[in-house]
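Exam prep: given the inputs below (a chain plus alpha-L-arabinofuranose), describe the expected output before reading on.
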Amino acid sequence: MRASVIAHRDYVIADIDNRIYGAFLEHLGRAIYTGIYEPDHPTADKNGMRGDVAQLVRDLNVPMVRYPGGNFVSAYNWEDGIGPKEQRPTRLDLAWHTSESNQVGIHEFADWCDTVGTDMMLAVNLGSRGLEEARNFVEYVNGPTGSYWGDLRKKNGRADPWDVKLWCLGNEMDGPWQIGHKTAEEYGRLAGETAKALRAFDKSLELIVCGSSHSNMPTYPEWERVVLEHTYESVDHISLHMYSSNHDKHTPNYLAHNVKLETYISTVASTIDYVKAKTRSKRKVTISFDEWNVWYHSHKQDRAILDGKHGWPHAPALLEDIYNFEDVLQVACCLNTFIRKSDVVKLACIAQLVNVIAPIMTEPGGAAWKQTTYYPFYFASLFGRGRALNLLVSSPVYESSLAGEVPYLDVSGVENEAEGTLTFFLVNRSGDEQLEVDLSLQGYADAGVVDHQIMVHEDLNAVNSAANPDNVRPQQGSGAKAEGGSLTVSLPPHSYQMVRLS
Ligand code: AHR
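Solution:
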């Protein structure tokens, strides 16, 4: 099979906001406890944070981490996580049927973010709580000393405000599973009033209002219209979530997921435009895709805990999807979508970061290792920064029941002017045929290949583990040739490649 691509230097989608390579950490399962925090671990620092995990996170160059939830935040009291650790209460976590010891709270998380070189993106509880507690949390985190909350923060060891800019106004409020679930009208009113109060404190905050939890939600996309009509003037982003799964073990359908993702983003972008016009607004609200990933491998094994059959365990294994090679292709395709939609998607978070549907896994007291999906995220985060090119792609297609017509080739292109590089991320969705790709590089006549990475495996179900951490990993590619303004590259069946030119 053959596909062709035209990349023109002046044909640009947008400057990519680096924050599309964000991540998410929730008080859920072993994400925090025995994930990032394990005081008895041999690599733990003075704050009890695992050094091996911190290094793997640092290597991903994640610009910000969303915290503390997720469903967890909708019944969370942030005050439980401040003050002397021995006085912090253990609470029942209603979202995941577990116990929360509160040994990690905002101070510990903020210190960890400093250690790994990332910013905080915080969520307030608009499920079981409301405007007042949200306002207090924001003032505790960002307020000056000389005021009640700022002085309390100082007493607890931190005089300087953290100056966190990104604030999520609740989580998945459209979901009937959410504690404090609301209708679009109810939530829109509450979010609008909360945003008003937070803006009265600090106009420069970036506020994120909840959109849909999935494009299959019955309230989508009317939810977005109603919520935005209440909040358009006072928020900056609307959040979308979507996970993919392959329960039926049907790879062509599974790999069609990001076509559906792209339609979802386009529809919400149109809804934003509609509300902007209707409200005669001058603002441009954009999208924060703050939960995305593959999530299904662990569904069955989690049932007993979620159904309460184990009581209220503290930090049990939950949502521990072990990713396979097929998931590499999926994650790579989703990242391509975020690059291609970088004109409207300004923030995104892979959900999540450690142990819970995550690229990084740990053993309590033992090793930390990279899941298969670590690599496409790593390559995009490191080399997918710059300007997204508007590629003209011509590829053979197949028909999928999930998303209709799907091209075998999924590709994105990023030019980094400062570094003088041009990077392509390519996936061959076909499991049977090699794909020969001809890329015409217009305006890049002198470019030559400087790096070529390939991920391919004879077994779609191959995984990494503590015992075999390198089973699925990238290899140096060969055969990508750039000459006289054209690049040719062969994609083996079911493969992912990154080709960099300079
Ligand atoms: O990331 C796991 C869960 O998925 C989050 O808690 C929730 O927001 C979503 O449903």
